[in-house]
Amino acid sequence: MTNLMPDLIRTATENEHTEVQQKSAQTKAITRIKSHELFQQMRELEIDHGGRIYKLRLTQLNKLILTA
Questions:
Q1: How many helices (H) and strands (E) does the chain have?
Q2: Digit-coded pLDDT (tens) for 7-17
Q3: How far is residue 56's CA from residue 21's CA, in Å, rounded to a whole number?
Q4: How would you classify residue 40: left for phi > 0, otherwise alpha for psi between -120 and 50, otherwise beta?
């Protein structure tokens, strides 16, 4: 009777490695922009998304509000 345990362990390890690679690729795909770079000394900006205008505002409590 052959021992299948090493194959099962190898398969689990390969699957974990693949999951880690996928998560790493997803993380790299996200672009991070600092809000002060986006606002450039302003407290409100407009975003054109598919022809619809959205307003992104910075509140007095330093929170962000997005409205259509």
A1: 2, 3
A2: 666 666 677 77
A3: 34
A4: left
Q: Residue type for 3, please?
A: N
- The amino acid present at 35, given as its one-letter code, is S
Share of the chain above pLDDT 90, in %: 57
41: its two tokens: 């000394």
What are the Cα distances from residue 42, in Å, to 36, 46, 58? Answer: 9, 11, 9
pLDDT digits (tens, 9 = 90+) for 44-53: 999 999 999 9
Q: What whole-number distance in Å separates Cα of residue 46 and Cα of residue 52?
A: 10
- Give the sign of the dihedral formed by CA 5, CA 10, CA 14, CA 20: positive
